Amino acid sequence: MKTLRFHYHMELAFSEPVHSHVYTLKCLPKTTGTQRIETCAYRISPESSVREGADSFGNRMLYGKAEEAHSLFQVDVNGTAVTDITASCEEQEATDCSVYRYQTPLTRPGERIGELLARCRERTGELPPADRLRVYTEAVHESLRYEKGVTDIGTSAEDALALGRGVCQDYSHILLSLCRADRIPARYVVGMLLGEGESHAWVEVCDGGRWQGFDPTNNVPVEDGHIKISHGRDYRDCSINRGVFTGQARQRQTILVEVTPV
Amino acid sequence: MEIELTRRAETVNELLARYGVKFGIYKDNEFKEQLFPFDTIPRIIKKEEFAYLEKGLKQRVMALNCFIRDIYGEKKIVRDGVVPEEFVYISSGYLAPCDGVVPPKGIYTHIAGIDLVQGKDGSWYVLEDNLRVPSGASYPMIAREICRKSSPDTFETYHVEDNRDYAKLLRWTMDYVNTGGHTVILTPGRYNAAYFEHSYFAEKTGAHLATGRELVVEDDYLYFVDYSGKREKVGAVYRRISDEYLDPMTFNEESVIGIPHIYDVYRKGHVALLNAPGNGVADDKGIYYFVPKMVRYYLGEEPVLQNAPTYLPYYEEDMRYVLEHFDELVLKDVAEAGGYGVVFADRMTAAQKEDFIALLKREPRRFIAQEVIDFMDIDILENARRTPRKADLRAFVLMVDEPIVWKSGLTRFSRDPDSFIVNSSQGGGFKDTWVLSQ
Amino acid sequence: MGIISVENLDRLFWLGRYSERVYTSARLFADSFDRMIDMDMDNYAAFCRQLDIPNIYSSREDFCNRYISDENDPNSIYSNLMRAYDNAIVLRNEIGSEPITYIQLSVYDMKKSRVSRAPLVGLQKVEDNILAFWGIVDDMIENENIRNVIKIGKRIERLDLYGRLQMNRESIVREVHRLAGRIARTNLHYDEKNLKELKKLAEEDQIDYDRVVALADTLRKD
Fold first, then answer.
1. If pLDDT is split at 50, 70 and 90, which confidence band does B374 have?
2. CA-nearest residue of chain C to B191?
3. Between chain B and chain C, how many beta carbons pairs sit less than 8 Å apart?
4. What is the CA radius of gyration of chain A?
5. CB contact under 8 A, B101 and A56
């Protein structure tokens, strides 16, 4: 069990001022079976009327519209979380996992993922899912070299694996693809990691009615240093920021996350 | 006996042109408007026969509505193994953001267009359920107006149910789920194939016709903005754009015809959307196979209307049958619509057949196979002579506190004597559909 | 149908303008055509000059064909009619199906006159349909604002055309007064300073035509 203080910062810098900027943000962690959010406050600038809601995966959303012209859009979230993976009691009925059993356009396997799965299977045989997952996680970790800027949000698992390089999103998509090809329900998770850095992504799989996290980027099972923000079928269900604005501008997104033990 | 109306074809066509009864079509990337060819010989459905269809259609749409509610709710039908879950989750009509969202009054299928054909033996078969944005009711509606003008004697002789009440039924359907506020018909704009229909319905129902740009979301409500900047709350939107384009913040991010955050307003119950987003999960060609099972499952009744005999290559037994009887079947790609992705096996070359069978074995879930129904042909007038053509019937079912079947329908025929494809986008024409009142 | 969007308010205005442009240019063409039959074969050059449209025509025949019905000539009557049609077709909700039929019929008649050696017969039908359109707009549309916006479009266009053609003083004065009387009754944004100046110009003995045209075109503010 850990008590963690987190600060999440996201900013969009526009090359020209934009206006009528409509946004939906998924950046608020919520209390789950393995984490309790004790405090959580957010600030959005420019200030506008913000509404709260939840999507169909249960992720918290903030949405609104920044009417006036602005060149910088910022979101800050501050809070404390108590994490305890041993407390996991998020029992799910089998049908609730069903949607996570099927590939999406981003996770659909091709030849490369097929080969990777075949190689893994030689080692896993008839092992139970949790053990198979350890093998998959390691295999994904070893198949990719961490490198920024070579893939983007539209890169599929198959393409990333063929490239052999990528970021946490790519690691996670490949692992999802393997799990689903093996009929294990698996979901994409966005969250924050102990220390300083960007937001992070990992995978949760449903085994015996419980969701368990695996972090293929770091080749570890998810532990108390992970604070979960959202989950979905793939990156697209969890995208931290969606926006539509008026103006001819390029935008640059920066995310800074800081998680410290209390 | 000859119907007097059929001697007035010229007058009727002149009036149809005058009223601009057209649909849009893209040819070589250019938008063109075409008159929708009309044939004056009506399809006539006798009173008792329609009563039978009505019963079956109500039952079918009830079951479809139950199915959608179940899929986005408890998923009992999947858990009970009646519908394999992958048919649900791989369907392009299944939209995850709709999970757990219950629309006003629990209605998902406000306006359904059920396509039927009649076999030579007189029995009816359902070919397709269209639940997303079925179009076509405006055509028989305005055609009737014009036919009555052109040949009043005909309507004095025959006792035909008036079909011009469609606007009233549609208005009732919209009002029934309205959460408080104006009623809007949302169109992608004038370069949409069915723009005539959108604007005609708006005029006839008294709803506002709007494009996405004229609607805004503010503080969890939807508003129509008028020229002075005044905002008018909207309580119901009959959207004639597909759900993927409805809201770039939830569905397709690239959509420029949608309204950002309209789905969040809907999720909070502050506006009704007709038809409900995500309802396409039930009109998928793969799901079609299971509709008679749904009727039994949800309503505990035997289905009144039958499907065309259909095989799912997904099931081994059906695959075997399909391969053995390949030449007798029509194959449909479940992802396609509008008459596309339909192939008749007996018209394939040997090489095409081989390729297709390989594809079928590779992607069994992608196709359904159906027996070719021996259609009962309907006469049309061609150069003033009666000649038989293939035709189908799109029946419209509107859902209020219970389903209402419109006493008419869109009869489409293929103009090409060798074709089974009746879609307007592929050159088909239409007829009025008479339901006799005595 | 109380509420109208900005886009549709604009379309109503332009529907008024283009319907007027079709009507008046068809009538002007008729005068010119008559002269070209046997009096002044090259009268079309003067016609173009007066209307301030480029004389891209090579002969009387070329002019008669293209000015009436060439869809690629942006100044043809046909092109202007199609602009009216494009606006009308999206205003079914505001003006109703019946008025639209007259614009639709004009399009059919225009297409028929395209092949005729006696184009004025077909153009006469186009004019009849436009007149019927205005009549039904006046008669059937309950919303006064909608009626007025179409009429303002029509009045502004007419003033613009009459100014370009340097019509007699009485015609200009009449049009200025009709416009001024109507525009105050609409919800359109317009430039009051310009309107005042227009009224003053109409009081002068010598009409400053260029100024009238300029003021008419900038009277309406978005």
1. confident
2. C90
3. 57
4. 19
5. yes
Whether C171 and C126 have beta carbons less than 8 Å apart is answered as no
Helix ranges (H only) for B275-427 are 285-288, 291-294, 316-324, 350-362
B186 neighbourhood in chain C, CB within 8 Å: none
By CB neighbour count within 10 A (0-12 exposed, 13-18 middle, 19+ buried), where does A249 fall?
middle
pLDDT number for residue A89: 55
Backbone angles phi, psi at B378, to 5 degrees: -120, 145
Question: Taken in order B68, B71, B73, B79, is the CA torsion positive or negative?
Answer: positive
Q: In this complex, which chains have at least 3 CB pairs below 8 Å with chain A?
A: B
Which chain B residues in 199-258 lie under 8 Å from chain A, judged by CB atoms?
217-220, 248-250, 253
Question: pLDDT tens across B279-314, in order?
Answer: 999 998 889 999 999 999 999 999 999 999 999 999
Cα–Cα–Cα angle for C171, C172, C176, rounded to 5 degrees:
120
Contacts of C104 in chain B (CB under 8 A): 17-20
Residue whose entry in the numeric block shows the structure tokens 């009223």:
B19
pLDDT at C1: 46
Per domain, the residue ranges of chain C are 1-142, 143-222
SS3 A195: strand
What kind of architecture, by CATH, is found in domain B309-371? 2-Layer Sandwich (3.30)
A-B CB pairs within 8 A amount to 63
Asked whether B303 and B60 are in contact (CB, 8 A), the reply is yes
Chains C and B in direct contact, meaning 3 or more beta-carbon pairs closer than 8 angstroms: yes
Chains B and A make contact, 3+ CB pairs within 8 Å: yes
Which part of chain B has CATH 3.30.1490.270?
309-371
ipTM: 0.92
Distance CA B186, CA B195 (A): 10
In angstroms, rounded to a whole number, what is the distance separating the alpha carbons of residues B303 and B305? 6
Q: Which amino acid is at A34?
A: T
Q: Which of B45, B309, B27, B26 is nearest to B159 (CA)?
A: B45
Residue B158: both structure tokens together: 């025959």
pLDDT tens string B126-161: 999 999 999 999 999 999 999 999 999 999 999 999
State the DSSP H helix or E strand holding residue B222, giving kind and residue range, or none if neither: strand B221-225
Measured between CA atoms, the residue of chain B closest to residue A62 is B264
| Mutation choice for B interface testing from C7, C8, C9, C92 by most B CBs within 10 A | C92
Pick the closest to residue B214 from B204, B201, B223, B205 (CA basis). B223
Distance CA B100, CA B87 (A): 19
Quote the CA–CA distance of A160 and C12 in Å, as a whole number. 54
- Ordered domains of chain A (ranges, CATH): 2-84+240-261 (2.60.40.2250), 92-232 (3.10.620.30)
